[in-house]
Task: inverse folding
């Protein structure tokens, strides 16, 4: 009935129209009801309105948004939330996470990497055991979580990668290029570490691990293994005597690593030949990474259900096996016993801050990239706390796994735990594999351990590659490259494989450690510090807090506001100063790097930082203005397209500007569409273009 009244002009007041409407309406109602009777007063009809407009005389939403539909409506696709219309936006072609669990698992896989297993436990026992936990968690609260939250919110708000987000202050887009350079370096050598883990994983599929005995062609007379047949029943005592009287003793696992797997050359400049087994494993690792990212976050989001969770299964299996071994408690106590006198040592606090900073992956660009695929209203504040705490808890848990096995090995050899403790590749490919040979069914534990290393590495490598691909695709930004994103991923993967080939030569480990120590060290600290200062002081902390409130529905807590503005930049500066003061020329075992190699390392570090001033100078020169000050203001001012990427979210100061006449037409005309259309039709011969435009607006 209401529908008929609408089409008969019931919304237009007037005696003649009202009488005609009541008569015809009453007749139709009697015919439908099958009899006569009193006619009820016709209700005011609901006139169809354009989505996003409000009826005159009714208050609109207080926040300037486009209305609040039923809050009990289930979430819509493409990033809509309850109380928001379903969207058709660029996220459809750019892509979103399938659900929030995929983002959390991907970020956990990105943050939890090889360093959690082979660096943190070593730092912990070297810096006071359990006492190291105190500065570690202090730095987590005041530096780690705030920086993590800042990068997640930065990428999520703009829905852009590490280059596109710098529309916030175009002069500092060089920071984004610096992040890309750092991610390129790390992605090259990180996959080489994964390929070595692949190699150990494959060779562990045997009845006897190849590094168990000293009877192999690559072993030297100095080799002494705990399971060698030529040792007497007092093998442990003999080895203890050997360890205490001479420094020549080498384990079979160390000789297998240096003389067979690497076939190590005597100098970083002597590349030697390519180690074909490692080259093949490098190809395998890049193929795996490419296949997992072949459809971007749509495919990698499914893979992380396994790659981010299964390492915890393996860690738990190894932990249960480790604590049941004799001497495991000694190793764990060595790991946890607090030495409170070291708390006052500045180096302990510096190590804690550095480990938090590097472990969470700040300033790599990966956090910004992963968050850019989030839905706009996702609670990234909650996610940042969950992911950061999970990362640190994993580091502590991995320490139990490592030191329970090392304690067992030290007990077996009759030496102190410090004699067998190591870090970095030495722990993963020498000390721990040797300890595994002492266990029954050692190949099984070796397979599990190296499979865990592979998964930990792949979780980080996924994000490194996606960071580069997303930055390239977002920067070009046209339909052609978006449709061919898979080919961009393939091109980056092939380039990464070719650049990693020199690291599989006989001098490859020298170059790998050089890149690890210089390419991603103090340059990351500088990049993170500049990002903090740019967002808080150049873009403005008030603007950024309002952006977060628009996105999350609440401003960042006061604690985070204080950390972002004062505490976190101060800690970052402290890390930079600490890194410079504690700098020592790199060495590998007894090999000292030559000066020219260290110079190359510094050039790699500077190559990412130098992007910032170069692009800033370029942007200032290209900006409008008669004076240098005007050019600087224009170069640092947020560009017009800064803000939420989706039109549905661009409200408040990001709302598109309409002229008053257009806005009044858009809101008033739907109230009387029939009258407007008839008036426009009658006036069209006189009004000409204005009338036709008015009629066209009414049809809209």
Result:
């Amino acid at each position: 009935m209401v529908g008929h009244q609408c089409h008969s002009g019931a919304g237009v007041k007037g005696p003649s129209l009202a009488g005609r409407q009541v008569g015809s309406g009453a007749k139709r109602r009697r015919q439908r009801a099958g009899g006569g009777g009193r006619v009820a007063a016709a209700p005011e009809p609901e006139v169809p309105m354009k989505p996003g407009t409000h009826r005159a005389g009714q208050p609109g939403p207080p926040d300037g948004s486009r209305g609040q539909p039923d809050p009990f409506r289930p979430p819509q696709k493409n990033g809509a939330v309850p109380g928001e219309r379903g969207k058709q936006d660029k996220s459809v072609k750019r892509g979103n996470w399938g659900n929030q669990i995929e983002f959390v698992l991907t970020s956990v896989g990105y943050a939890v990497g090889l360093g959690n297993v082979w660096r943190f436990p070593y730092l912990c026992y070297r810096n006071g055991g359990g006492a190291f936990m105190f500065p570690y968690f202090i730095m987590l609260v005041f530096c780690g979580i705030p920086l993590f939250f800042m990068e997640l919110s930065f990428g999520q708000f703009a829905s852009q990668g590490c280059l596109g987000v710098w529309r916030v202050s175009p002069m500092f887009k060089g920071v984004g290029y610096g992040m890309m350079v750092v991610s390129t370096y790390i992605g090259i050598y990180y996959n080489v570490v994964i390929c070595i883990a692949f190699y150990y994983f494959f060779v562990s599929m045997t009845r006897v691990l190849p590094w168990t005995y000293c009877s192999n062609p690559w072993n030297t007379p100095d080799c002494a293994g705990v399971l060698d047949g030529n040792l007497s029943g007092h093998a442990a005592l003999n080895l203890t005597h050997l360890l205490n009287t001479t420094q020549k003793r080498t384990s079979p696992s160390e000789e297998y690593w240096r003389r067979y797997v690497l076939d190590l050359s005597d100098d970083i400049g002597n590349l030697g030949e390519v180690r074909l087994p490692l080259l093949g494993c490098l190809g395998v690792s890049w193929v795996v990474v490419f296949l997992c990212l072949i459809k971007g976050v749509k495919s990698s989001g499914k893979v992380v259900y396994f790659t981010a969770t299964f390492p915890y299964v393996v860690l738990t299996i190894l932990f249960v096996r480790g604590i049941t071994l004799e001497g495991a408690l000694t190793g764990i106590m060595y790991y946890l016993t607090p030495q409170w006198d070291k708390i006052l040592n500045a180096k302990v606090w510096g190590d804690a801050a550095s480990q938090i900073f590097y472990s969470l992956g700040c300033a790599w660009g990966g956090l910004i990239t992963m968050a850019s695929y989030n839905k706009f209203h996702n609670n990234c504040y909650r996610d940042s706390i969950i992911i950061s705490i999970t990362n640190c808890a994993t580091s502590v848990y991995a320490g139990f796994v490592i030191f329970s096995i090392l304690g067992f090995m030290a007990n077996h050899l009759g030496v102190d735990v410090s004699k067998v403790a190591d870090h970095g590749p030495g722990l993963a490919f020498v000390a721990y594999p040797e300890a595994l040979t002492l266990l029954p069914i050692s190949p099984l534990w070796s397979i599990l351990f190296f499979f865990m290393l592979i998964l930990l590495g792949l979780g980080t490598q996924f994000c490194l590659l996606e960071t580069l691909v997303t930055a390239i695709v977002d920067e070009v930004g046209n339909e052609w490259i978006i449709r061919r994103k898979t080919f961009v991923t393939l091109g980056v993967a092939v380039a990464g494989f070719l650049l990693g080939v020199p690291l599989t030569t006989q001098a490859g480990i020298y170059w790998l450690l050089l890149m690890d120590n210089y390419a991603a060290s103090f340059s990351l600290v500088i990049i993170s510090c500049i990002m903090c200062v740019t967002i808080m002081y150049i873009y403005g902390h008030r603007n950024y807090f309002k952006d977060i409130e628009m996105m999350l529905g609440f401003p960042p807590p006061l604690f985070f506001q204080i950390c972002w503005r004062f505490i976190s930049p101060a800690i970052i500066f402290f890390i930079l100063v600490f890194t410079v003061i504690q700098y020592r020329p790199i060495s590998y075992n007894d090999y000292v790097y030559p000066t020219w190699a260290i110079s190359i390392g510094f050039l790699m570090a500077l190559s990412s930082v130098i992007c910032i001033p170069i692009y800033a100078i370029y942007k200032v020169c290209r900006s409008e203005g008669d004076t240098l000050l005007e050019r600087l203001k224009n170069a640092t001012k947020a560009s017009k397209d800064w803000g939420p990427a989706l039109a549905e979210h661009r409200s408040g100061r990001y709302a598109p500007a309409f002229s008053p006449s257009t806005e009044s037409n858009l809101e008033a005309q739907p109230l009387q569409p029939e009258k407007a259309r008839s008036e426009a039709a009658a006036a069209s011969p006189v009004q000409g273009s204005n009338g036709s435009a008015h009629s066209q607006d009414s049809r809209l």
Notes: Confidence is low (pLDDT under 50) at residues 1-90, 230-246, 659-700.
